[in-house]
Amino acid sequence: MSHAPDHQPRILIVGAGAMGVVTGYHLGLAGVAVTFLVRPHRLAALQRPQVLYSYDDGDLKTFTAYDCVTTTDELARGRFDYVLLTLDSVALRSPEGVSLVEAIGAATRDAPTKIIIGTIGVGLKPWFLRVSGLAENQAFNGAMSIMAYPPTRASLPLHPPTNAALLAQADLAYVHGGAQGFIVDDSAPEAALRFSHIYNRCGASTCEVRPADVFATSIPALFPIFAASDLLGWPRAEDLGADAELWALTTEAVRDIQGLQRNGQPGRETQLATTSQSLIDMWKAWETATLPMDLQAFNRFHHGGKVNAQDQLLLLDCIVAGQNIGQPMKALQMLVDRVAAHRASRTKREVD
Predict the structure, then answer these.
(1) Are 207 and 144 in contact (CB under 8 A)?
(2) CA 299, 304, 305 angle in degrees (round to 5)?
(3) Can you tell me the distance from the alpha carbon of 260 to that of 266, in angstroms, rounded to the nearest whole number?
(4) With 105 labelled, which of 73, 237, 293, 312 sits at a CA distance of 20 to 30 A?
(5) What's the mean pLDDT when you consider all of the chain?
(6) What is the pLDDT of residue 4?
């Protein structure tokens, strides 16, 4: 795994979990020199090729063209065009995460390096700029719209034509949930557009640039549905509305988030168009688009467990963002309270 020639785009990916490796794989196909910044204990696993199972075509992919580092020292040398953060919001805002952001800021403040904040949350770019000391045009938000998970840790129901034998060989399995594999906002328009052009060279996935207010509206508004799915036991999309009272509350919680002032006109327009049935229809379409991967089984593993703390933090941040400007966020608060009570009851049963 050697370093690339100077003319190649160079991207440092912070974290080599599902998002980091799958995005790195596609960037590698695009001719990017990919380097992972990882903790020392992760180096051993990355010394061998990473094997990925694609539900999109039922085949294995092998990812070998990457380097690994364990410190931010090389950032100061100006080696990288972009740094992609893949930590979840809880890890990013931990003391260790804050130290990392400060180090990234110190190393890139006078460099052309741009930062992609691939962490899901509310108001993360202003927070990141404040902690890092970087300029407004040096960072923008991003999100992977591919679902990926380690088959060794999550056993999802198999739907045809999934190749179980190949799936068992993979470090990660993934599927595109729509036309795009990655989404960025235009809060640093030139840097975001250039990144999308680089990503799109891969030929196997695409990156969409969305207006910042559209990006801010579309992603957080999904999270009340994850919360309701948890309360309902992660049913199929067609059964989400079985508890009419809960689903009505969930719909209003989604509308609370869409109507946040920070989401601008796109948020208000989406809020007006959102109904209980439109949300079910959207989830059905997503469920179909991700086949043969089982969407709700994936969500149970990912949102019900792996990043659940991040999900709860996002919903709480939405409540605070609304209440700070006089929006009561009543439905969202009620939903969050129900989830907290449900989880506390479940924990008590497990302890007893």
Answers:
(1) no
(2) 115
(3) 10
(4) 312
(5) 94
(6) 47
